[in-house]
Amino acid sequence: MSPPDAPPRRPAGGREPDETDLAALARRHGLTVSGARPSLIEYTRRLWDRRHFITAFATAHLTARYSQAKLGQVWQIMTPLLNAAVYYFIFGVLMGTKHGVPDYVPFLVTGVFVWTFTASSITVGTRAISGNIGLVRALHFPRASLPVALALQQFQQLLFSMGTLVGILLLVGVYPHPSWLLAVPVLLLQALFNTGLSMVMARLAARTPDIASLMPFVLRTWMYVSGVMWSVDHLLSKGDLPHAVIVALECNPAAVYIDLMRFALIDSFTAAQLPPHVWALATGWALLAAVGGFIYFWKAEETYGRG
Fold it and tell me: Where are the domains of the chain?
């Protein structure tokens, strides 16, 4: 019998073993191709095993992001607030979109905070692979850890900023109500949706880096049609839009999560009758993006870091 480390026996006839013989030998001893993509179930298990790394990576990025700024993490709050102030002046005052919208200040601020969560998750997703290429090439780990960690970072940042949003609501006379508890499932569904989009963008940008430069224009357009600064319901009530446009506006995932958060937090919206399809849409978008984005990212696992 040949020793374990002996080279494969030369087949009868004296010829050298070909690739078929070597592949059969490798399979017999349980060897696999280096960098091969694991099965979806195995990949999910490995990702779960890295959950502590994902949490630590997200927290470290959140801390480092503002470490060089004099105001530090205050910018987590100031950025959406400054955006809200600009939008209030341009759209609320100059363009008059606040007319016909009750509680316009909490309406606007809530929309800005919720939209910023989605937009920033997509933006960091485009840099998940390219921005950590040294880590990707040096270590072996599920690459989905990176977009998931960066999406978690944005979720942590949103939770930090929610205290400011609550403070603004109290200042303008919107007080706690049992419906505020609905904000928890809304944020969880939106976090799932954002994580799925982050994984999709991570794969796309890993192949085509120019996507990162294009995304600000795409996100700006998406924001304008999502009812951040104006009321989608007020526009739809006019009844002069084509049916396809109405369906697109009603099913827009960003608008769905914004509407649900306004329904949870603002009294004048809580008193209104929320269409039953909104919660179904929010859940459907979250599951579609999370599951679909995860599978889409996994299918290219062995290509990340090459080239």
Answer: 37-301
